[in-house]
Design brief:
With about 900 residues, the protein is of the alpha+beta class. It is built from 29 helices and 26 strands. The radius of gyration is 29 Å and the shape is globular.
Length: about 900
């Protein structure tokens, strides 16, 4: 029952999600920033308590540097197919080395850069660093690898046809400057590579690697347990003797030709109603100055007071929403983006709507030329630069890589300049209208998106219904993702503090009694799980609780199989106030109008097409519906909520509260503090006698889960890809079962990927994921392809499972020892700190595993397991009659 939503400092995406916002959030403590003689720029951050290390590489070259459409993307794929030499002198595929050392990699090619973020056990980090540097010396390119990765890139391309941001930027190509690299097929596919022989592509790739994958084009972030001095020494020993070569000249021309503006672009997009976007290229301003100006103006729009810029615009009745942000940028030119969803009145107003927005933006820019507010904004920027997350993850590394690549230390001037004001007067802009359907005859060059492009006619006079806005309230604070209070890094194992019959309280003590505390409160509401009708009203109740708890910014409500739960963070005093308010919040009743409004919003959210990142996510969703009786498909939820009325909701609330039982877990503080907090929590009603509703409901859920049968089921996907999901239940009731499950998972995952993608080239997305539902646990083997049918994927998977035991028998003792070390490091709670440790303890409380030393028993089983144990476990899962697979096939959307 770990909360699915974790607050993170995420980069804000620009218009259409094309480019991430590059912040100046470089950490200012415990780090070392170095500019090396060969042009490399590196940032190291020492974290002695980390069990793993992070290595980030960013090359200042992307699709804008393609000499063949899609070449940079292909280079990213080929780089990850390289081989390295491990500590024993054995030559291994890079992905195999990562698997054996508990590692993984994420990579992405954008217009102007390519990044890789590697995560690996800390013992292998320095060796990986050396081998990555070696790959820059001699990147091996073969025609067989190229052919394999062209298939993978093309398969990935087929799925991009379903991604909204790719469709929109494809239609946007028509409005950009003629000959600009933005107009090319940046992703690449079979068609873009077909005019070239494999030998020709090999030559192009070698030239690309030699020109761009060099130190002067490289930024590196290294986070490990070593000291800063040792980290920099490792970088010098690995990358220091790479040749000194000049950085490639990669400055692109401006994206828009001002002589063709203003223009009006209509695009068919997956939206439920018409939406608008205004792009203003900031010609004459440097990209740095343009982006900084937009950031400062957005700072002004983030206040919520009555005199705020956004609120005044919404009060006109013309707009449902208005957002100001950075737009797409290229070369040395930035752009400003205004996105809005109009009301019916706004649609009827026509051109007057966007003219009012421009007038409001101009008024905002004039008022924002206030040096006092600028000083406050810079203070916020500096505080943000000095903030280091408690636990650093891959997305933090990506942000720092982008910052390093800018090679800027001083904060730029951000007051709107006279040049910026003159751009607002000239109105050399691109107005974009998104339509649910469009009968345009023009089609975008890559994804065949309907669009029309025409000259924008600007009225010579101001609109007759122009709205005069009052002076805007200056922002008091910069709106930013809240930083959660940092928890104590270490805490005792949970101990039972009290059990009153309706509230069970657990506590993990920490040395500092008055430090920040995390509280997990689980509320068992068995009535909610009795039917789809009850479960759907339970979701509405959860939404209402989220709204009523907004005065506590560090609270996070979420759902679980038996009810709902909330995570609280803060000081003991703050936690006490929040716990004391729980009973009132649970009993808060919605008015008829509030119920109707919330009901309409939830139905509207559910009716939107799902935004799947991968085609197989639809199969994962279907698997969840198949295995968990309490999971209702979207159509069922919509129908249930449409049939529900206000009296139904009130009745559900009262019935649920009459059978309420709670589990409270307190991480932090001493025993007396925890006892005082537990006394602050009161429940609205007494719990029913033991053994009735809750127990019966749980038994019903378990029985339903056991009735799941094997076989093959098919479904239509919301994409042009095929997909296959093969699910096998696994025994995980004992520590030895869990140990075998954890050891076998990385081996299955790596070998399945190698077989179907690298060797047979049948699928692009290939993986094995653990399934961890309340009553169903197992492995899900997943493969996705545009060219390979589910039938072929199914046969290939069956053959893989037939061959895997032979491969498992070839695993050496040394390789198995590496996997054991990796799994042990992941399972050992001593390596966990703060939030991760609190989540670990809460997970075991919610699974009712606190009564035994479960984790220690699993670790001991990992240490003692032999290869033959894994073979027997594999047979029990994949070859026994009881292990019959549930196979889900996904086909592209079909006509008729």
């Amino acid at each position: 029952m770990i909360p699915p939503r974790r607050l993170r400092n995420l980069a804000i995406l620009s218009t259409f999600g094309l480019l991430p916002l590059q912040t100046d959030a470089l950490p200012d403590n415990s780090h070392s920033l170095q500019d090396h003689s060969n042009g490399l720029r590196s940032l190291t951050l020492s974290r002695p308590a980390r069990a793993n290390a992070l290595i980030g590489l960013q090359f200042n070259a992307g699709s804008f540097q393609d000499t063949v459409p899609g070449l940079a993307h292909l280079a990213e794929h080929v780089f990850l197919r390289q081989h390295i030499v491990d500590a024993r002198g054995e030559r291994l595929a890079l992905r195999d080395f990562l698997t054996l050392n508990g590692g993984r990699v994420s990579a992405k090619t954008s217009h102007e850069s390519t990044y890789f973020v590697f995560e690996i056990q800390r013992e292998a980090a320095s060796l990986l660093l050396q081998e990555l540097a070696e790959l820059l010396r001699t990147t091996r390119v073969t025609t067989s690898i190229i052919a394999s990765e062209i298939s993978a890139v093309s398969d990935e391309f087929s799925f991009l046809k379903t991604r909204e941001n790719w469709l929109l930027q494809d239609a946007l190509k028509s409005a950009t400057a003629a000959g600009h690299p933005f107009r090319r097929n940046s992703a690449g596919n079979q068609a873009s590579f077909a005019p070239y022989s494999l030998d020709a592509l090999k030559a192009e790739l070698k030239s690309f690697f030699e020109r761009y994958y060099r130190p002067a084009n490289l930024s590196l972030v290294y986070i490990s347990a070593e000291s800063p001095a040792q980290q920099q020494q490792n970088i010098r020993e690995s990358f220091g003797d790479l040749p000194v070569l000049p950085a490639a000249n990669i400055r692109e021309p401006p994206l828009f030709d001002s002589s063709t503006l203003p223009q009006y672009l209509h695009i068919q997009a997956p939206v439920s109603s018409r939406q608008f976007n205004l792009l203003l290229p900031l010609a004459g301003l440097s990209r740095e100055e343009g982006e900084a100006t937009v950031d400062y103006l957005r700072f002004w729009t983030d206040t919520d007071s009555a005199g705020s810029w956004r609120r005044q615009l919404l009060s006109t009745g013309l707009f449902k929403s208005v957002t100001l942000s950075r737009g797409i940028a290229a070369g040395n030119q930035a752009s400003l983006s205004l996105h809005w969803v109009p009301t019916g009145t706004g649609l009827a107003a026509g051109d007057a709507t966007w003219q009012i927005l421009l007038q409001a933006l101009q008024a905002l820019a004039v008022q924002a030329r206030n040096p006092n507010v600028l000083a406050r904004f810079r203070a916020h920027q500096l505080r943000d630069r000095n903030r280091i997350p408690g636990y650093i993850e891959s997305h933090h590394v990506q942000t720092w890589l982008q910052t390093l690549a800018k090679k800027r230390s001083e904060l730029p001037a951000v007051l709107p300049s006279k040049q910026f004001l003159s751009l607002l007067d000239k109105r050399k802009l691109l107005l974009i209208e998104l339509h649910p359907t469009l009968d345009g005859e023009q089609r975008s060059p890559v994804f065949d998106v309907p669009y029309t492009l025409q000259k924008l006619t600007q009225p010579t006079a101001a609109p007759h219904n122009a709205t005069v806005l009052e002076a805007f309230t200056p922002p008091v604070d910069l709106r930013e993702s809240p930083t959660l209070p940092e928890l104590a890094s270490q805490a005792d194992k949970p101990k039972l503090l009290a059990d009153t019959g309706h509230i069970t309280t657990w506590h993990s003590a920490t040395p500092k009694a008055n430090g920040s505390i995390m509280v997990q409160l689980s509320l068992d509401l068995p009535v909610i799980g009795q039917s789809a009708h009850h479960r759907t009203l339970g979701l509405l109740w959860l939404e209402a609780l989220d709204i009523t708890s907004q005065r506590f910014p560090d609270s996070d409500w979420y759902r679980h199989d038996q009810g709902m739960a909330v995570e609280l963070r803060g000081t003991p005093v703050q936690i006490r106030d929040q716990l004391a308010s729980i009973a009132d919040m649970l009993q808060t009743t919605l008015t008829q109008a509030e119920f109707d409004a919330l009901k309409a919003r939830m139905i509207g959210d559910w009716q939107r097409p799902p935004d799947y990142r991968f085609a197989f996510e639809r199969l994962v969703e279907k698997l969840r519906y198949s295995l968990i009786p309490a999971e209702d498909p979207t159509a069922v939820r919509i129908a249930a909520l449409q049939e529900s009325d206000h009296p139904h909701w009130l009745a559900l609330q009262q019935q649920s509260l009459s059978a309420l039982r709670a589990t409270l877990y307190i991480y932090g503080g001493d025993r007396e503090t925890a006892r005082a907090l537990s006394h602050a929590l009161t429940l609205p009603h007494a719990v029913q006698s033991p053994g009735d509703t809750a127990t019966n409901n749980f038994a019903r859920t378990a029985l339903a889960a056991e009735e799941i049968q094997g076989g093959t089921r098919s479904t239509e996907l919301l994409s042009e890809s095929n997909a296959l999901l093969r699910y096998h239940v696994t025994p995980r009731s004992t520590p030895q079962d869990e140990a075998q499950f954890q050891l076998l998972l990385p081996l299955l995952k790596r070998q399945y990927f190698a077989t179907l993608r690298e060797e047979q080239r049948l699928a692009y997305g290939v993986t094995v994921v653990p399934v961890n539902f309340e009553q169903q646990r197992g492995y899900a083997l997943i493969a996705q392809s545009a060219a390979t049918t589910p039938d072929i994927l199914k046969r290939a998977t069956e053959q893989f499972l037939s061959d895997f035991p032979h491969w498992l028998n070839t695993l050496t003792e040394a390789q198995l020892a590496l996997v054991k070390a990796r799994v042990s490091a992941e399972l050992d709670p001593r390596a966990l700190r703060g939030e991760q440790l609190a989540d670990h303890y809460w997970s075991h409380i919610s699974k009712q595993q606190t009564g035994l030393n479960w984790q220690e028993a699993v670790l001991e089983s990992v240490r003692t397991l032999q290869p033959q144990d894994l073979s027997r476990y594999f047979d029990a899962v994949f070859r026994s009659k009881e292990g019959e697979a549930l196979i889900l096939e996904g086909w592209p959307r079909r006509e008729g």
